Amino acid sequence: MQRLYRALLIVLFTPTAIPVFLPFSRGWMDGASYEWGMPLLGFSIGGAGIGGDYLILSGLAVFLALLFWAAWRAPRRAFGALAAVWFAVWAATILLFRLQTGPFMFRGDTLGVAVDITIVASALAGAGLLLALALLIRPGTPKRRAVWAPFNTAALTVWLAGYGAAFFLLRDGEPHGTTDQYGVVMLLTLILTSHLALAPWGRRGA
User: Fold this and answer.
1) pLDDT (tens digit, 9 = 90+) per residue, 112-161?
2) Distance of CA 50 to CAs 26, 153, 197, 202, Å?
3) What is the 3-state secondary structure (H, E, C) of the chain?
4) How many CB atoms neighbour CB 178 within 10 A?
């Protein structure tokens, strides 16, 4: 069950982090040359660089970071509450966007991507919400405190180095050029590898 629980975390949270983590990082790394936008609860937020609605985006990024931490380090019920909020927001956003506008699209000009993700995004949001509610209703045996092991420190150091590398690739590269593409791929990889830095690898304390 523990392995299944972790697998579900990676499958569900990694894709839903992309629409927030990617524009948040590129907003301050690329600067005003980077334009971003996304739907949120029936509204449209966006901007260029750290302008426009970047403060709202930053709030979502902070909540996302807290959610990733809670997934591996907090009691399951606390994590379930945060996850329920996260997935409820996404489910409502997708539904309202579908009713008001049409297909829920993911666009990435740097990589030349434009994909209709309505079905996939709806499935992720629905499954995530059900999992979160299940954790709230039946949290199971309380987890013991996860010790921060040497591997966590090493993985976090590598993660920060990768984030720094993405900064230089995106800051100094030509907009939508090869270095920008490498930077975007680096950021997408970091979303997945963040689990390595946060997961409990050492012995657990009481």
Assistant:
1) 677 777 888 888 888 888 888 887 887 666 666 778 999 999 999 999 99
2) 9, 30, 27, 38
3) CHHHHHHHHHHHHHHHHHHHHHHHHHHHHHHHHCEEEEEECCEEEEEECCCCCHHHHHHHHHHHHHHHHHHHHCCHHHHHHHHHHHHHHHHHHHHHHHHHCCCCEEEECCCCEEEECHHHHHHHHHHHHHHHHHHHHCCCCCCCCCCCCHHHHHHHHHHHHHHHHHHHHHHHCCCCCHHHHHHHHHHHHHHHHHHHHHCCCCCCCC
4) 11
Indicate yes or no: pTM above 0.70.
Answer: yes
Cα–Cα dist 27/12, whole Å: 24
Cβ 160 vs Cβ 33: under 8 Å: no
Integer Cα distance of 140 and 191 in angstroms: 28
Report CA torsion sign: 195, 198, 204, 206: negative
Q: What number of other Cβ atoms are within 10 A of residue 116's Cβ?
A: 12
DSSP β-bridge partners for residue 115: 106
The CA-atom distances, in angstroms, between 21 and each of 5, 28, 72 are: 23, 11, 19
User: How far is residue 193 from each of residues 29, 52, 87, measured CA to CA in Å?
Assistant: 20, 30, 21
